[in-house]
Structure formats: structure tokens, C-alpha cells
Design a protein that fits this description.
single chain, alpha+beta, HIT family, subunit A, 6-stranded antiparallel sheet, 22% helix, globular, binds zinc ion, hydrolase, nucleotide binding, hydrolase activity, nucleotide-binding, HIT domain-containing protein
């Protein structure tokens, strides 16, 4: 279906097949191999080579919208309250992998440090919804 060259995400992530929870032509979602909350998934664009949120512009709004929809789907957010889950992106210097990936977390976090790492107050994380508003204005 795809060659590795068309799927640059494979240079950065190698989920086990059993950890893949969703995939379509544009994105793939899988369990984080070191979960930091009750449930922890990553949603990754398959073929769009972007290092991080600072490279996103208005042309990426459909992709980001799609990633958010997939996040809602895999977290099953219709049964959750807003404070029970989080979706978003690390920003420098907390970004660990130079390929765009959205964290989807079902709370609670496993420890205080993780709560800080995934909070906007730390300055190292941005919620997917805030980011969407920001790139729509770019
Ligand atoms: Zn990350």
C-alpha cells in the first residue's frame, strides 16, 4: 500500500502491530510505549513530514482537525468530561521526537512530573484546540 519513503513516520516510531488502535490514509494512532497516564496514545500523520507545531500553518488545519477527530474517537470522549482527558503537543524544549505527534491522554497522570510535562502552565505543551485556533490565525 505504502512504501517507507511515503511513510516518513516510520523513521521515528515503530509501534508493535497490537498497539495500533486506528489507521486511515492520513494518520495512524497507537499506544505510547511508555504510557504516562491511565491511557496514552499518539496520533501521527503518515506522510506529512513536519518536525513540530512551530512548523504548522493554515494549510495544515484540515490535518489537525482530522487528528483531533481521531483523538476523540480513540479516547471515546463522548463518555468523558473535559477534565478527564487531554489532547495536545509538546513544544520546545519538551519535544522529544522531531516528527509531529499528538498526545491523547486519559487522565489521571501517573505522577506529578507527567502532570507538569503535559500542562500548558509549564510552557512546554499546547492543547490541540488552542493550537487549532492559533494556526487558523496564521
Ligand atoms: Zn511528545
Amino acid at each position: 500500500m505504502y512504501t517507507t519513503q511515503q511513510e516518513p513516520w516510520k523513521e521515528f516510531f515503530s509501534p508493535r502491530p497490537e498497539d495500533i488502535v486506528y489507521e486511515d490514509a492520513h494518520v495512524i494512532a497507537f499506544r505510547d510505549k511508555t504510557p504516562q497516564a491511565a491511557r496514552h496514545f499518539l496520533v501521527v500523520p503518515r506522510a506529512v513530514r513536519i518536525k513540530g507545531v512551530e512548523q504548522l500553518s493554515r494549510e495544515h488545519v484540515p490535518l489537525l482537525n482530522h487528528m483531533i477527530q481521531v483523538g476523540h474517537h480513540i479516547l471515546n470522549t463522548t463518555s468523558l468530561l473535559p477534565h478527564q482527558y487531554r489532547m495536545g503537543f509538546h513544544v520546545k524544549p519538551f519535544r522529544s521526537i522531531p516528527y509531529l505527534h499528538m498526545h491523547c491522554l486519559l487522565l489521571p497522570f501517573r505522577n506529578t512530573w507527567q502532570r507538569i510535562r503535559f500542562s500548558e502552565a509549564s510552557g512546554g505543551f499546547i492543547s490541540a484546540f488552542r493550537l487549532l485556533g492559533r494556526i487558523q490565525a496564521r
